[in-house]
């Protein structure tokens, strides 16, 4: 008898499978490489963005992949991303949830928020301190951290990579949260190790990693609680400077305690290390392109002179220096891939997109689209000096996302990076290091894997451009 039952169940399951396959085949899908039976398409791990970019040569800027029954829609051009993510922002706003992020409790907060009401509150809260008027008040704070960075380079240039982390990290905690608590800084660094790991997008983890994730959950909760209570305590003592948390606490009807805690907890991790990546990339790029370095230094010398450090207000008068930074953002985007999942089934350009499709936005490929950027793999700052260039090709616009999930920290990041890059160029020469035999050693130009990428570790020589540099930096340190 049980054999008959099993036979019936098998027939029913086979029928359901056939119906599902037939239903899918009856709907047009975006083109893509033919999948293998059962397992689907195989994409080798490591630097996924580069491998996905290759498929566009055959299947166009918008194509599909299938892996173990799951569909993936890849967007390799900014035009296709704008049409889908900007044009249908009400559908394509949710981020997929990496399993390890969920286990670690970091799904609480604006980065992975799936509740539309809480997301709206979080983004409104970020605007309390990231609006254009507010950013005007942060320039002195930014200059203070950049000057300290220059001082650190003078004292120990070999530690430039660690010094670079102090600039955006300190600004994020003090300017955005008005917090300099050592305990909070330690917690943030621990959790950033998790967030930056290439492991976070895996589906299956060894038991020990899952156990570790639960300890991360406790630390993340502790970080959120610590920042919240620290601010409350400073308010009671009357020593609190205006910050995102303090401003939100003044409006309890607009922001829930949950949103205040976990939005602030992710402010640091949301942008600090992307800025560090760009600073380190700047150092390696100047080693590899000394002619670019000299031209930018000549521009700064002519416009700013040698008696003071450059400021963000000099940006409009330093077009080539700004072009150098823009080209670094284009060619070496710190976050090469972002992702979305649709809130509902959709039809786009006549093709079906189910709500369980993973939308992969390949920013790296967009920044190297040869139809937009001639000779896309070459480092050419001069491409940004043309006054009639299309603003849609601006890397600052593309690199900070699309639709409802555009990163609100763009203007702050631009201020930090321009001020840092201009001040380094004004005060230091960056050149290749040498090994113990006197041989020149240059950066490999290769990058790590992960959610945020960094240049592989490298060494370089960083020397003051003149004896006067030490005095200028000392005067600036005393001024702040």
From TrEMBL:
One of its GO terms (cellular component) is membrane. It is found in: Membrane. PROSITE patterns: CYTOCHROME_P450 (PS00086). The gene is ordA_27. This is O-methylsterigmatocystin oxidoreductase. Its main location: membrane. Belongs to the cytochrome P450 family. The lineage of its organism: Eukaryota, Fungi, Dikarya, Basidiomycota, Agaricomycotina. Pathway: Secondary metabolite biosynthesis. Keywords: Heme, Iron, Membrane, Metal-binding, Monooxygenase, Oxidoreductase, Transmembrane, Transmembrane helix. It is a single-pass membrane protein. Its cofactor is heme. It comes from the Eukaryota. One of its GO terms (molecular function) is monooxygenase activity. Heme binds at residue 407. It comes from Grifola frondosa. PANTHER family: P450, PUTATIVE (EUROFUNG)-RELATED, P450, PUTATIVE (EUROFUNG)-RELATED-RELATED. The keyword Kinase does not apply.
């Amino acid at each position: 008898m049980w054999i008959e039952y099993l036979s019936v169940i098998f027939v029913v399951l086979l029928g359901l499978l056939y119906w599902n396959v037939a239903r899918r085949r009856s709907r047009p899908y975006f083109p893509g490489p033919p999948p293998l039976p059962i397992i689907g398409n195989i994409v080798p791990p490591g630097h996924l963005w580069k491998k996905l970019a290759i498929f566009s040569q055959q299947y166009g800027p918008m194509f599909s992949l299938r892996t173990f029954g799951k569909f993936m829609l890849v967007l390799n051009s900014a035009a296709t991303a704008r049409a889908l993510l900007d044009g249908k922002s009400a559908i394509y706003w949710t981020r997929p949830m990496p399993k390890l992020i969920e286990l670690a409790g970091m799904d609480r907060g604006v980065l992975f928020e799936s509740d539309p009401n809480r997301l709206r509150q979080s983004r409104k809260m970020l605007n309390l301190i990231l609006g254009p008027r507010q950013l005007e008040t942060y320039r002195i704070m930014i200059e203070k951290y950049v000057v300290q960075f220059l001082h650190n380079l003078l004292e120990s240039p070999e530690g430039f990579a660690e010094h670079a982390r102090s600039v955006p990290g300190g600004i994020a905690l003090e300017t955005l949260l008005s917090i300099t608590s050592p305990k909070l800084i330690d917690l943030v660094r621990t959790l950033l190790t998790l967030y930056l790991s290439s492991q976070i997008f895996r589906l299956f983890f060894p038991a020990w990693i899952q156990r570790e994730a639960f300890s991360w959950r406790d630390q993340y909760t502790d970080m959120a609680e610590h920042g919240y209570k620290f601010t409350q305590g400073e308010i009671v003592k009357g020593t609190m400077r205006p910050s995102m948390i303090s401003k939100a606490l003044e409006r309890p009807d607009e922001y829930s305690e949950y949103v205040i805690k976990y939005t602030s907890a992710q402010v640091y991790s949301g942008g600090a290390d992307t800025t560090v990546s760009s600073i380190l990339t700047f150092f390696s790029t100047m080693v590899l392109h000394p002619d670019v370095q000299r031209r930018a230094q000549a521009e700064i010398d002519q416009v700013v002179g040698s008696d003071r450090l450059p400021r963000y207000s000099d940006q409009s008068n330093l077009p080539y220096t700004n072009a150098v930074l823009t080209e670094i953002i284009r060619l070496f985007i710190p976050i090469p891939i972002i992702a979305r999942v649709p809130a509902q089934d959709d039809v786009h350009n006549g093709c079906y997109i189910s709500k369980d499709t993973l939308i992969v936005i390949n920013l790296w490929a967009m920044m190297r689209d040869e139809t937009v950027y001639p000779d896309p793999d070459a480092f050419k700052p001069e491409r940004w000096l043309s006054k009639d260039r299309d603003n849609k090709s601006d890397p600052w616009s593309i690199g900070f996302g699309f639709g409802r999930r555009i990163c609100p920290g763009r203007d702050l990041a631009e201020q930090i990076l321009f001020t840092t890059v201009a001040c380094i160029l004004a005060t230091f020469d960056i050149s290749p290091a040498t090994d113990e035999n006197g041989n020149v050693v240059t950066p490999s130009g290769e990058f790590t894997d992960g959610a945020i990428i960094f240049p592989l570790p490298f060494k370089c020589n960083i020397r003051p451009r003149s004896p006067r540099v030490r005095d200028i930096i000392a005067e600036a340190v005393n001024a702040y």
